[in-house]
Amino acid sequence: MSNRTAFLAAIGQSEVGAALIAETDRGYNVLVGSTPGHPLTFSDYSKHPDILDTALDSTAAGLYQINHPTYLMLSAQTGLADFGPATQDAMALQLIDNRGALALVDAGQIDRAMALLMPVWRSLPGATGGVAQNNNSRAQWLAWYQAAGGTLT
Questions:
Q1: Other Cβ atoms within 10 Å of 63 Cβ, number
Q2: Choice among 15, 74, 83, 93 that is catalytic
Q3: Is the pLDDT of residue 132 over 60?
Q4: Cβ-based neighbour number of residue 26 at 10 Å
Q5: Percent of residues, the chain, with pLDDT higher than 70
Q6: Which distant-in-sequence residues (6+ apart) come within 8 Å of 18 by Cβ?
Q7: How many CB atoms lie within 10 A of CB 131?
Q8: Which of 84, 110, 82 lies closest to 96 in space, CA to CA?
Q9: In the prediction, which pLDDT does 133 show?
């Protein structure tokens, strides 16, 4: 279970960043387009906020920057209808499982898991396309993962 927790922590660092995690509700209420010192947030966790950032053409929200269409799909898969922190965690794990990477995360095969998840999270090392986003280096990403207690095999 610790590899899952560490992997989620690394995704949060990669997608939202340490500064926004510190400035907000641990990143769980962050809207796409936020920057350190200028966080854009939502306060209602009863559902996905579904707020379109027209400049980025995205409704991504939360620690894992899940967009509204993906939220609807995950809500149908999981039966979860809110967008609170525990639900965001569960939905991120469901996304990982949907891509066939959950067993790889559990086994500490993080490079293989990241390769499968690049289409989901564009901030992963090597990911391309989608919303313009900084990719984090493999070394930085693995450092976040290991600092959160994740192990590699």
A1: 25
A2: 15
A3: no
A4: 14
A5: 95
A6: none
A7: 16
A8: 110
A9: 58
Collapsing DSSP to helix, strand or coil, 30 comes out as strand
Cα distances (angstroms) measured from residue 130 to each of 104, 118, 134, 151: 24, 10, 11, 29
Number of C-beta neighbours around residue 72 at 10 A: 12
Pair of tokens at residue 149: 């207690």
Q: Are 20 and 28 in contact (CB under 8 A)?
A: no
Q: Answer yes or no: 15 catalytic.
A: yes
Cα Rg, the chain, nearest whole Å: 14
Task: Look at the pTM and tell me if it is higher than 0.85.
Answer: yes
Tokens of 17: 């960043």
The ranges assigned to domains in the chain are 2-147
Q: Does domain 2-147 have CATH number 3.30.70.60?
A: no
Nearest partner of 68 among 51, 56, 54, judged by Cα: 51
In sequence order, what E strands does the chain have?
Answer: none
